[in-house]
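Bench notes, afternoon.
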Amino acid sequence: MYVYMGKAGMTSGVVFVSVVYWLLALIVLFPPCEVAAAGLTIEALLGHWLGSESITLVQYHMRRTAVTLIIHTLLLPGYVVTLMKSEPWVWDFLDVQVHSHTSALLLLASLIPTAVLGWVVADWWRSGWCRHPLAARLAVYAPSNSPEAWKSVASDINTEFRRVDKFTSGVSSVYQVVATDNWLLKVTAYQVQLLHLRDAVLSLEGAHTTHGPEPATAPPAQLLTIKVMSVREGAPSFSIRLNSLEFGELERKIVNPVVNARHIVIQQSLSDFFLETFMETIRLNPPATPSTTERNLCFGCQQTSANVRLERRCGATEGSNGCQECHCRPMWCVSCLGKWFASRQDQHHPESWLGSRCPCPTCRSTFCLLDVSLIA
């Protein structure tokens, strides 16, 4: 029993060290906002060597991707060394039961990826970064076939990035989308992909809604997947992910219109998301009796016929805090009434909007969503 408990205790020690180490490794691989704010990322710790992103964007990311690759591959030998120091019995067991040099061979094997990448990065550095994958992507747009021709393209991108009107999204070391006057860049931990906006064709491929850790207090976010293709030969395509709230700003930067062959509905703001929910909710209400008189255009947009009427049915007692009778003739379309309803709510507490009340835009009688009826 003592031997069994001893082995169980040693095994639990290995599990504990492994879990703690790889949790810390995940923070290195995908640093959260708190770690980035504390200046504990690779970019912050090696900022003096990497240079300034705002001044030399291209060269900065060449150095950053190189050092990121090396540091991330060091995580595996780092784990082996940590386990050797904290749980030496594991290596003694392997040396006795498997081979006398098992621990040394495992350590050397864990260093192979680092050695290979170190040789590749050294080759990039010796060539003046001309053999870096980003230099090859820039060379597609270079005016000549000279090995140094990519630098003129890099200089143009650096100049445009220094302008204040650039578009940036997802600013982090893990993922970032940048749009300047002429270039669209996707920056990830290990590479930078880019296309000239004149040659770029953007196509909406999909969208999904994500909820935060507290869905009751934070509105869901719609993430768009956009495929970026180029008509220029030799320029590879790639995909970007973007919050729908930022889509309009990106759209103003690009040259060619975005292709939406899948007819994806883009939720541009909290009000737009509420408007969709508003329409779905009032469709559950009983329809209003059609008016005998001809309906006028909506007073708000002057484009759609007025198609909603307020009919008090929520059962609340009439008073200053309850719903009131509205005797107005139909003057608003459902979209404009929904926008009006959203504009009159507490913008800091969107979770309360569906259960709130609002004054009629015409007579100021209070109503709630149960009182809104579509005209059949």
